[in-house]
């Protein structure tokens, strides 16, 4: 069955770092571009980052440019989101998504506070 299993969320202080992982199975991961989205309470879902199937092209939302980095390890069927210099406004539930498939992860909570 198709699964996108996220991990790495938690609570950190402003300025801290966190790395999210999304382990995928049940589809041909290496052929699929991947995205990270986030949604905070009362706000619209926001595209955070995307990465092409081979990892050669990336995109970042303006609010995270220079602080976050998306990568993937195709032999491990896993996509990552490295989050540095975290701010309270980064607090949200983060989701991974397999483009063109309709497959979503369950979401993982990231909380940035003093």
Keywords:
single chain; 114 residues; mainly beta; seven-stranded mixed sheet; four-stranded antiparallel sheet; 0% helix
Report on this model:
- The protein has 114 residues and is mostly beta strands.
- 0% of the residues lie in helices and 50% in strands.
- The chain contains no helices and 11 strands.
- The strands form 2 sheets. Strands 2, 4, 5, 6, 9, 10 and 11 form a 7-stranded mixed beta sheet that branches. Strands 1-3-8-7 form a 4-stranded antiparallel beta sheet, with no helix packed on it.
- Strand 4 and strand 5 form a beta hairpin.
- The protein starts with a strand and ends with a strand.
- The mean pLDDT is 97.
List the helices and strands and how they pair.
Blueprint: E1 3-7, E2 10-12, E3 18-25, E4 34-39, E5 46-51, E6 58-60, E7 68-73, E8 78-83, E9 92-98, E10 103-104, E11 108-112
Parallel strand pairs: 2-11
Antiparallel strand pairs: 1-3, 3-8, 4-5, 4-9, 5-6, 7-8, 9-10, 9-11
Q: Main beta sheet, described? A: 7 strands, mixed
- C-alpha geometry: globular
How large, in whole angstroms, is the Cα Rg?
13 Å
Tally the helices: what do you get? 0
Which whole number gives the mean pLDDT? 97
Instruction: Give the termini distance in whole angstroms.
Output: 40 Å
Helices and strands, in N-to-C order? EEEEEEEEEEE
**What is the structural class?**
mainly beta
* Uncertain parts: none
Summarize it.
With 114 residues, the chain is an all-beta fold. The chain has strands at 3-7, 10-12, 18-25, 34-39, 46-51, 58-60, 68-73, 78-83, 92-98, 103-104, 108-112. The protein contains no helices and 11 strands.
């Amino acid at each position: 069955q198709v699964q996108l299993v996220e991990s790495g969320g938690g609570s950190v202080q402003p300025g801290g770092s966190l790395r999210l992982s999304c382990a995928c199975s049940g589809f041909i991961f290496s052929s699929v571009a991947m995205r990270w989205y986030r949604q905070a309470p009362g706000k619209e879902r926001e595209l955070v980052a995307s990465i092409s199937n081979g990892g050669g092209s990336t995109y970042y939302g303006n609010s995270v440019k220079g602080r976050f980095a998306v990568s993937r390890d195709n032999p491990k069927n896993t996509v990552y989101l490295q989050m540095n210099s975290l701010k309270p406004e980064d607090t949200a539930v983060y989701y991974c998504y397999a483009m063109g498939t309709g497959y979503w992860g369950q979401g993982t909570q990231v909380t940035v506070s003093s």
